[in-house]
Amino acid sequence: MRTAHQDIAQTSTEAKKGTVIFLWVALSVIFFHFVLYIVSCSLLLTQAAEVNSSFAEGAVKDHGLYMVMSSVSLLRGYLIISACYVIVLFPIVKLWIGKKQFTRKSIILRTSFLMLISLSALIFRMMVFKPYFVAQWIPEWQSQIMPGAPGVLKSITLWTLLNGIPIVILLVVSVFWMRFLVSLPKAMGNIRFKLAPIMVIAGIVISLSICIKILQSSLTKDSEKPNIIIIASDSLRSDHLSCNGYDRKTSPNIDKLAAQSQNFTKCFTPIGSTLESMVSLFSSQYPHSHGVRQMFPSKKVVDRVNNESPKLPRILADSGYQTAVIGDWCSAIFNEVPMGFEDVQVSEFDSFRIWLSQALYLSHPVIPLYFDNKFGYWLFPKLESFAHYLRAEVVTDRAIAKIKYRRDKDKPFFYTIFTGCNHFAYHAPYPYYEKWTDPNYKGPNKYQVHFDPNEFVSNPSWDNPYTSYTDEEKQHIIDLYDGCVSRFDDCVGRILETLEQQKLMANTIILITSDHGEDLFEPNTTITHGVSFNGGDQGNLVPCILYVPNMEPKKINQLVRNIDISPTILELTEQPKDNRFEGVSLMPSIRNKQHSLGLSFYGETGFPFIQRKIPGEKVLKTPSMDQLTYVDKDFDFHIVLKDMHRDAIISGKERCLRTEEWKLVFTPGTQSPIHRLYHIPSDPNCIKNVSNENSEILVRMKYHLWQWIISGKESNSSEILEGKMPEEYEIPSKFQNIEFSLDNEDPST
Predict the structure, then answer these.
(1) Whether the Cβ atoms of residue 549 and residue 267 lie closer than 8 Å to each other
(2) I need a surface site. Which of 141, 267, 338, 658 has the fewest CB within 10 A?
(3) Which residues contact 608 (CB under 8 A, 6 or more apart)?
(4) Does residue 636 or residue 203 have the better pLDDT?
(5) Are 436 and 479 within 8 A, CB to CB?
(6) Is residue 394 within 8 Å of residue 374, measured between CB atoms?
(7) Cα dist. 117→112, 114, 120, 153, 268 in Å?
């Protein structure tokens, strides 16, 4: 009897002891995270005080309450983290104390020590796998982890330290809690016994429903119409794919597909900017036709595209295709212009409030530490809109799931998968950031290109520091870019593997492409896109690798445009061409690569967020981004070009006409129009202006370029070089006297 009383007393004592430990562990964890929250909020306020632009003033004036409420909403993340830490640390602290006497101080110290160890491990993990987060806060930060170690040994060691040990700890903690649940009173056991039949029945029902779905899937016959998949990466350069002659093996998966495809090596987008280019691709129209001519369109322009422009996805949907676009922040354009896609699974980005939210979230280190995952994207949906989150691997997972578990398998599908793998600032997770880089590099661009977003907004010459970079610094940035290419290639490989497993390759048309290329320190360029035609073709040249089942593969070196892709797909799927299309089908060249389409390339630049530079010439000076735009409260807080600058922006664009041999560039000057003529075969980087030596070619190219600029009339290569010429023509005065009126208040603001 005495023994029983002693057992009860001992159990009661242990329970009280456990309760006290649990309480102080919980309080310590909550206090720790509360301090972290306050410090993070203070960091944001400090950064905001240093920003000097009209956008910053508007953020405080018009969006202060929004920022406060967004900051408060982050507390739920801190509470979830705290709860998880309590569940994990309580058993460890309790086992650590054991039978010894303890005080509140000892519990707090043990908990704090374990928190610091855990936080250090998580930061180290982030430094290894996602160092670009750290580089945002400390640009000069450098780290070499196991330098010189073989790749396999390094991967195994890092996995053991950063994954294996935490898994063992969690298993031990799980055993503790399982033993605790088993030791619950008999009453709880009775409840479990009563619930058991219900749980068994629920399990049977779920299992049967899964089996039925699998059976239905296996019995459904795939469509006989060809499926279509477009896989694109923002800013992907065609000439950085090894299948197109690049000296690095950056793209083995794409190379394998290209060996079975129609590889158009000279495919150009009419404008080197995402929104405008993608609208051109899916509408088969030039920017002057569909109306989106820069990256900050008004609601009126967006409505015009949505209501009037032809759309490849809609045409295919009307003919029985399932259509979907899946992507990250670079695909956010499809929220504005869905282009007829029925299912839009992309981020939201172009709202000014998303920009503000990004600044807020990046000031809280706990977000990338704990919530850069599927649960985090569910808890904080805005994370999917930020450049460093919603990784390309997650987008690929979603695309694979879409392919595997699509509904109505008897219907063909058209899916577009668009990621920001190659977009500036060229950040990528481990191992891609070190795949091509020199491990001995020391500098501010170790893991991504360092740049100041505030300078980007308020200074059109924000890229000037890059002009003084050494060759070593430039090469390192190119190496980072190539790592991004390899990352995209791996994503492509996973999608192709899925298509093989699902036995869909024999009936699926696949296109590898991009929205535009990228400047990478070519002559008179730095690192950007869409602001000039300097340096060669790199800004507007895009991959166009078209896999067509049972079609003889070939490399086609003729000049084509991305506006030709939609007519080609429609012909391949035996759909009639929309009469509003301005592109042509590439099928004649696919059937016979010797057949010349005689196409010429007409292009224009996008939003001038970098000041153009031409050695020896006085080019038009353009204001900063925050002077040219405003936040439209009536258009979901999108950043929009001010009405007063619209004509000047369009007239102030560079224009380009390119044939197989010649390239003419018009640049608005401060005193008169500037025309530069280049001979591509002898000068692919467009360094020497040969206008004086080729006056007849210059006259012909100028006439046909201005016919396109003024009236939208395009000419083929034979018409340009051999056609009849008028005696004279005139360049409109609006292209010679361009002014930005910054002194007058725009009513749209």
Answers:
(1) no
(2) 141
(3) 460, 531, 622, 649, 652, 653
(4) 636
(5) yes
(6) yes
(7) 9, 5, 5, 25, 52
Q: What is the pLDDT of residue 348?
A: 77
| 251 vs 261: CA distance, rounded Å | 15
The mean pLDDT value for 624-650 works out to: 92
Closest alpha carbon to 70 in 367, 299, 285: 367
Cα(690)–Cα(683) distance, rounded to whole angstroms?
Answer: 10
Contacts of residue 345, Cβ cutoff 8 Å, sequence gap at least 6:
324, 325, 326, 327, 398, 402
CA–CA separation, 655 and 633 (whole Å):
33
**Nearest alpha carbon to residue 536 among 679, 673, 718:** 679
Residue 327 three-state SS: strand
Instruction: Give the number of other Cβ atoms within 10 Å of residue 225's Cβ.
Output: 17
**Which of 455, 556, 491, 584 lies closest to 234, judged by CA?**
491
Cβ–Cβ under 8 Å, residues 548 and 262: yes
| Spatial separation of the C-alpha atoms in residues 726 and 669, rounded to whole Å | 26
Backbone angles phi, psi at 436, to 5 degrees: -120, -5
pLDDT at residue 8, as a whole number: 47
Contact 637, 589 (CB under 8 A): no
For residue 333, the SS3 value is helix
Per-residue pLDDT reduced to its tens digit, 511-536: 999 999 999 999 999 999 999 999 99
Q: Is the pLDDT of residue 744 over 50?
A: no
Taking the C-alpha atoms of residue 522 and residue 684, their distance in angstroms, rounded to an integer, is 11
Q: Which of 170-184, 445-459, 609-623, 659-673 has the lowest mean pLDDT?
A: 170-184
The pLDDT value recorded for residue 369 is 86
Separation between Cα atoms, residue 723 and residue 216, nearest integer Å: 62
Q: Which residues contact 173 (CB under 8 A, 6 or more apart)?
A: 87, 88, 91, 92
pTM (predicted TM-score): 0.86
Using alpha carbons only, how large is the chain's radius of gyration in Å?
30
Q: Which residues, 6+ apart, have CB-to-CB distance to 319 below 8 Å?
A: 573, 575
> What's the CA gap between 596 and 601, in Å, rounded?
14
pLDDT score at 590: 95
Tokens, residue 530: 């869409």
* CB neighbour class for 32 (10 Å; exposed up to 12, middle 13-18, buried from 19): buried
* Parallel/antiparallel/unpaired status of strands 662-667 and 655-658: antiparallel
Cα 501 to its chain centre, rounded Å, is: 27
pLDDT(645) > 60:
yes
Q: Minimum mean pLDDT among 55-59, 349-353, 373-377, 425-429: which range?
A: 55-59
Residue 251: band (very low, low, confident or very high) from pLDDT cuts 50, 70, 90: very high
The two beta strands, 322-327 and 343-345, are parallel
Which amino acid is present at 606?
G
Let me know: does 447 contact 434? Beta carbons within 8 Å: no
In eight-state DSSP terms, residue 278 is: H
CB 346 within 8 A of CB 328: yes
* Structure confidence by residue, pLDDT tens digits, 83-136: 999 999 999 998 888 877 878 899 999 999 999 988 888 888 777 777 777 666
